[in-house]
# Entry
Amino acid sequence: MISRTSHLLLIGRAGLHRGRTAIVDSQGSFTYDDLLDASSRVAAVLLAGRETLEEERVAFLVTPAFPWVAVQWGIWRASGVAVPLPLNSPRAELEYFVEDTKASTLVFDALAEALLTPIAAARGMRALSCDQVLAGQAAELPDITSERRAMILYTSGTTSRPKGVVTTHANIAAQVMSLVGAWEWSADDRILLCLPLHHVHGIVNVVSCALWSGATCEMLPRFDANAVWDRIAGGRVTLFMAVPTVYVKLIAAWDQSSPERRAALSQACSKLRLMVSGSAALPVSTLERWKEISGHTLLERYGMTEIGMALSNPVRGERVPGSVGTPLPTVEVQLVGEDGRLVVPGTSGEIEVRGPSVFAEYWGKPDASRDAFRDGWFRTGDTAVVENGMYRILGRTNIDILKTGGHKVSALEIEEALRQHPAITECAVVGIPDPEWGERVAAAVVLKDGDALDLQSLRAWAKELLAPHKLPSRFLVLDELPRNAMGKTMKPAVSALFQAVLGNEPVA
Ligand code: AMP
# Structure
């Protein structure tokens, strides 16, 4: 069914929340009226007298704050497709995104201007500063149907260049409504954003859900552990969502605080109603430590750029450590074996997802878009198992499911066990090709300051926790794990480190 944007989607709903505070950033507080007004001016400048942008791509590089949302909504209101670019990207990557989307226009704030103006000039693109677009005069705006393409987000490809994931307004609305219901969002909520805004986690789960609900989104320009703690200590934040590495950094900052501040910070956490973790596996040790510090059992959920969120532990009821819960409202999930059939309960399989929140296509890649689906189900490339009715993620099928000596083992499971070693703070397990074993289990670890560990003693220790074929036979100590902007461990980079290290002889 075709529905008019003004009646259905985020922007239409903002009219219900007039007068309420939508966004708080370093420049002040902005109401929903401010957002409607600013985004209509952005739309008018983008339209420049035309009736509609007709799904023209508008790429923008703006620091998370009120102007970011005004620009995103302005693009939507002009019927453009929003392409949020990552901050801190190298120029070559930005050029790839701009060229792949064939964007007609680039919008940037003062910080990004020097980087983006030459990129736009070299391609004859329209280049507009935030100040310019925000200073427009309101104009007649087009009606937009919910089937229109709304956004392109790039996912990091492991073997190929990143693919642009296209979502329609209807997809985004479905992603938002599913979470607003399941996580009990209300207009009284106030969420702190500390995530980057080129990824579904920050854009949909935090900003869009808040603005859909009439809640307030307090925005930090970037993650800073002490700034996050200060906002939590302020006592007004009710919701917090982050990736596991953010919680690890918050724990470290708490550990380094004075006893008085620790007590105050822990006390302040009681003002929040919900704290969520996702976008990567949450180590059980982090969940447990966070509970000691904050009193909160983190709600872990599973999702992906292509599907929004699919599985979640409950807001009310038991949250099982190491599990990602059950399907969210309107999301259908099934586990499928290598033969393409549903697996027997208790057996692992690839997660397939269906429902209105699933993306429309990979931008400009009809073959990849077709191959990503089987009988209408999106093939996530993640493997999971259902235990006691709850899903447990075993990892990316092609990266984290290792095949060694005829066994299939989950890198995530081995990592969970190794993190229990007293000297290990972080670890990443990968499979290294091996003529005898198919793949060898290789563990890269980060050690606590002053600690030492070698492969033999790690294996001797791990025998209590892991079956012999799951014990690492290659080992590397690193100062830190290679991570992307979302804090996810980049497994291909870990594999490359193993390949590059000389003298890293396997243990028979
Ligand atoms: P992205 O598209 O960047 O959000 O990455 C999605 C991928 O992150 C998924 O395909 C999973 O491999 C991983 N992921 C997301 N949430 C979780 C989770 N709770 N546990 C384990 N892996 C996760």
Notes: Confidence is low (pLDDT under 50) at residues 1-5. Residues 155, 200, 278-281, 300, 302-305, 324, 380, 382, 393, 396 surround adenosine monophosphate (CB under 6 Å).
